[in-house]
Amino acid sequence: MSESKAGQPDETAKPRRRQARGERRIQQLLDAAASVFCRAGYTSASTNAIAREAGVSPGTLYQFFPNKEAIAVELGERLNRRMLETHGVVFTLENAALPLRELIDAVLDPMIEFNCANPAFLTLLQSSDAPGHFLEEHAALHDSIQDRIGELIGVRNPGLSPERRTHTANMAFALFKAGLGLILGHEGAEREAYVAELKTALYGYLAPVLGTEGAPARP
Amino acid sequence: MSESKAGQPDETAKPRRRQARGERRIQQLLDAAASVFCRAGYTSASTNAIAREAGVSPGTLYQFFPNKEAIAVELGERLNRRMLETHGVVFTLENAALPLRELIDAVLDPMIEFNCANPAFLTLLQSSDAPGHFLEEHAALHDSIQDRIGELIGVRNPGLSPERRTHTANMAFALFKAGLGLILGHEGAEREAYVAELKTALYGYLAPVLGTEGAPARP
DNA sequence: CAAGAATGCGAGCGGGCGCTCGTGTTTGTC
DNA sequence: GACAAACACGAGCGCCCGCTCGCATTCTTG
């Protein structure tokens, strides 16, 4: 059943065989899109500007994406996937047993690093202006992260009611995004200072709910 | 030697005499703008839509505002002024002497109430996409609030270095905006829950810096 | 090689945007 | 009432947007 040739995800009827050149173009276009979205926001970013930044013509852009929205969706999905692939391990359950301060370090440091390297991610997460359909994909992306946080909270404090857990996860994520905005808005020592402030804030918020100690598991 | 006629490039000259009807129209237009900005964000909001929502023609809108940007600026200024007039008292120094929990209640409750009644304010505060000039006015609005917070923090803990104070004020304000977004995104009991979560978060963040007690002098 | 698919181009389309302008109506002042 | 200023209208201008299309070029395959 499995094709011995290149993996063929037989989804809908889409007999489009991409060449290596095409994949490269897609990556160029997404990189350019990240840059332009970051600079102007989703609505103000123009597809012509994205194509220009990628060094291709508008027509070429539309060879690979059906419309502007699809660019943002694909960019968001790729960034999300890459973040989980690279740093998804921080959400594993063993981390839940760490003392709270170490848990926050373990989760935040990779996330902050990733977002500093990919500032477009936060831009997409915060883009409130958007055509309706993008908002749905956007919400899905949002929830996929929120679920990870809620899961971690649930393991850490199983006694929490589902509502409280949702509220806590939502608020923690919102606080994180807020701090991330400050962090990305500064550089060098200032940035480090805001990283420390954000950790302090999250510690202060989560300590009463999750406890400061780690799980009784001993090495 | 006053000018008899002929308005020249005199900056301070304001030869426009508004009638009561005009002031009413301006208010209608700003109300409509608040609604549209809130629904679509600054960039996606169209001046034609604002005029339509206000029940006037596009030409009438431009009788009172030179361009779209001026609408947002004026709206922001009016909201900011109104907030300070109505609730500015919460930043007075006597409040700084309250126990931290009461201080947070005293500051946050009126702010939350105001922002629930005027959700456009947060929209403007968060509007990242915008033409350059608007961003300057926007930053001024931002700073005017931030200064108030920094002042309060400074009175509460005079020993704080100016840098720390700035960082703390910035972070506290960012956390507040983040929580406010969640609050405005929910209603009824959910909203109340997020209000409580936000207060918890701010308390947890500020307690180590400002102390939980009311007495300002503390070894 | 030939042939077809994938890729690439860029002028230009339809449309909605911010905004204008000629004209008509209401209001304040004498 | 006479007159000017303020107010109101709405068709429409110029611009730029997202996006298309016809055609040229490059790759893959046999």
Task: List its traits.
9 helices; Tetracycline Repressor, domain 2; Arc Repressor Mutant, subunit A; 219 residues; mainly alpha; DNA-binding; transcription cis-regulatory region binding (chains A, B); AcrR family transcriptional regulator (chains A, B); transcription regulation (chains A, B); 2 domains; disordered N terminus; Homeodomain-like_sf (chains A, B)
What does this structure look like?
The structure is a homodimer of 219-residue chains. Chain A has 219 residues and is mainly alpha-helical. Chain A has two domains: 20-65, Orthogonal Bundle (Arc Repressor Mutant, subunit A), CATH 1.10.10.60; 73-210, Orthogonal Bundle (Tetracycline Repressor, domain 2). Chain A is built from nine helices and no strands. The first copy, chain A, has helices at 20-44, 47-54, 58-64, 68-87, 100-117, 120-126, 132-156, 162-184, 188-210. In chain A, helix 1 crosses helix 2 and helix 5 (100-117) packs across helix 9. The model of chain A is unreliable at 1-12 (pLDDT under 50). The interface between A and B is medium-sized, with 33 and 33 residues. Chain A binds a DNA duplex (30 and 30 nucleotides) through helix 1 and helix 3.
